Structure formats: structure tokens, C-alpha cells
Amino acid sequence: MRIVLVGPPGAGKGTQAAFLAGNLSVPHISTGDLFRANISQGTELGKQAKAYMDAGNLVPDEVTIGMAKDRMEQPDAEHGFLLDGFPRNVAQAKALDAMLQSADMKLDAVLDLEVPEDEVVKRIAGRRICRNDSAHVFHVTYSAPKQEGVCDVCGGELYQRDDDSEETVRTRLEVYHTQTEPIIDHYRAQGLVVTISALGKVDEVTERAMAALRGENAA
């Protein structure tokens, strides 16, 4: 299957993408991984992306599109893939349409993970990270440490990252609504959008998504 995964920050796209790709036996292709791989390998596209990023600028669509095209042409993606973070806007969606059409391929579905905005803010703004080891992550509501502000694992100080503040989260949501959300209408016009609730336990959301992709009732 060829699937695009879309949803606001905090919807759990990365987590769901990994589980869904495993269940569907297709590669999980994320924009973040594309950037890291191209930059670490020193590809021409990676050099271009790094130059923009080092200057504090957004990577242009054509660079991101080029990276995605190269990745989707790899042998492991021949029979399907799950795209996470690409396309990010309508221009990228149209470029993806053209890429697939030229290869005589098509998307099977665009899976839209739906989460209320207040829940997104609660999920992200409640995260606390250990200063000693960023792999130690807690949440003030869902997985609170035994002692407030102290890591259960190593005793390090827990803190809130600047980009996890409520103000920053709401800014990220506004960017999502303005830039990315319009691709849902773009794909809805093609009859590809399947919307599911991303509330609940991780495995519940995964099963809901798999059922929706099978064309079953995903309620």
C-alpha cells in the first residue's frame, strides 16, 4: 500500500507510522529521516538542505521533494510506503501526484489522525525531559514522575523544552492549519482521505487505523 499519514503535532504520527509500516510491511519514510540521511551521507540535496538549515531558513519544497523522490525510488519502496511529514503543503502534494502518475502509481489512502486542539496542547505542553538523558521522558498527566521535577531513572532534573511550551505549541498548530491541513481537502477531492480518532491507547489507535485502511468501521 502507498499511504500518506497526516495529522497535527502531538497526534502521535511518528509512533503510529512505525507500527503501521510494520503491520503493512512497507518502509516508513519520514521527512526528518530524509534530511538526516541526506545530510549525513553528504548528498547534493543534503548539502543544499544543510545550507538552508544552518542559515536558519526553511528548506525549499524542491529540495524536500527531490529527497522524497529519491527515497521512493529505492527497491524496498517498490511495492509501497508510508509517508510521514511529506507532503507538508499543497505544492508538495501536487508534486507527489505528478511523481506517482509518471511512475504509473497511485496512493491507496491518506490517513488523517484527528485530535482536538486542547488535547494536542495537553499532550505536548505536559512533556518533561531529563537533563541527564533526553531518552527519559515523562508527562505531568499521563506518566508523571514519582517526585515532581525529578527523573525516576537517574535522579536528573526534569524540564520543559522551549518548543513544548503552550505558546509554541499553539504557534505550531497555526502553521499546521495554514500550511498542511489544506492537503486534506486536496486529497479528499480524490476520494483518498480516511479520518480516524487518534485518542486512546497506542494499540487502540493502530487497530482503528488498520481497520480504516481495510475499509472496515473504524469507530
From TrEMBL:
Keywords: ATP-binding, Cytoplasm, Kinase, Nucleotide biosynthesis, Nucleotide-binding, Transferase. InterPro entries: Adenyl_kin_sub, Adenylat/UMP-CMP_kin, Adenylat_kinase_CS, Adenylate_kinase_lid-dom, P-loop_NTPase. The keyword Disulfide bond does not apply. GO terms for biological process: AMP salvage. It is found in: Cytoplasm. It comes from the Bacteria. ATP binds at residues 10-15, 127, 137-138, 200. AMP binds at residues 31, 36, 57-59, 85-88, 92, 161, 172. PROSITE patterns: ADENYLATE_KINASE (PS00113). Residues 127-163 form the Adenylate kinase active site lid domain. Belongs to the adenylate kinase family. Monomer. Consists of three domains, a large central CORE domain and two small peripheral domains, NMPbind and LID, which undergo movements during catalysis. The LID domain closes over the site of phosphoryl transfer upon ATP binding. Assembling and dissambling the active center during each catalytic cycle provides an effective means to prevent ATP hydrolysis. PANTHER family: NUCLEOTIDE KINASE (PTHR23359). Catalyzes the reversible transfer of the terminal phosphate group between ATP and AMP. Plays an important role in cellular energy homeostasis and in adenine nucleotide metabolism. This is Adenylate kinase. It comes from Streptomyces fradiae ATCC 10745 = DSM 40063. The gene is adk.
